[in-house]
Amino acid sequence: MDQVSATRSELLARRGQIRLAVQGRDLLSEKRAALMKEFQRLGTSVLEAMRELERGAAAARRALGEALALDGPEFVGSAAVAASSSIGVELTTRSVAGVRIAELSHEPVARSSMARGYGLPFSSARVDVAGDAFERQMERLLDLAAVELTLRRLAEEIASTTRRVSALEHVVIPRLEGERDFIALVLDERELEDRVRLMRAKSMRMDARDEVVVLA
After folding, report:
1. Cα(117)–Cα(85) distance, rounded to whole angstroms?
2. How many CB atoms within 10 Å of residue 150?
3. What is the pLDDT of residues 46-87, one digit of tens each?
4. What is the number of alpha carbons within 13 Å of residue 138 lying toward its C-beta?
5. Please, are residues 149 and 104 in contact by the beta-carbon 8 Å criterion?
6. Taking 80 as the threshold, does the pLDDT of residue 205 lie above it?
7. DSSP string, 155-211
8. Which DSSP symbol is given to 82?
9. DSSP 8-class letter at 67
10. Residues 46, 147: contact at Cβ < 8 Å?
């Protein structure tokens, strides 16, 4: 507290700084609550998406195994090469409590058997079933990747906001309140000392006047 100037202006300044710090803490707490609500909402959907992904992976493996066993690796491999294609994706952003969140959108992945590019010589019901299963898996993976991007950004911002709230609540505000109380205490002591000096001066003047009256 040695560096703190105990003046009225400093006391007013500390009070104003405390108000701003408290307002900042409250706003950041509200922001954190909004971010956590969005994080929990997306987290629930991610858990369900992961369970669906596991179920889909098992179904896709069974379909592929059946096609390989009954149609042969060369037949399935040729169909896979013919059906290969690119998928268009796009990144956009939206705002959650003032935080820019990336979102990934993509073109439809699932196709009809006629749109996969392989002709009838490389087509079978089993190949089509496997193709359907893996295209659905690719769609799930892309959707899950989009949500994961958002969850990571939200987690980073929640951690950063929590650190700022903690710093304000446990460091900045207590320090400012301590300085405010110190300044107020020093000013009160000075005021008390001034009153004592005034009372002494008044008493001395009254004593001197009484002595003059007696001598007269």
Report:
1. 9
2. 19
3. 888 888 888 999 999 999 899 889 888 888 888 887 778 778
4. 18
5. yes
6. no
7. HHHHHHHHHHHHHIIIIIHHHHHHHHHHHHHHHHHHHHHHHHHHHHHHHHHHHHHHH
8. H
9. H
10. yes
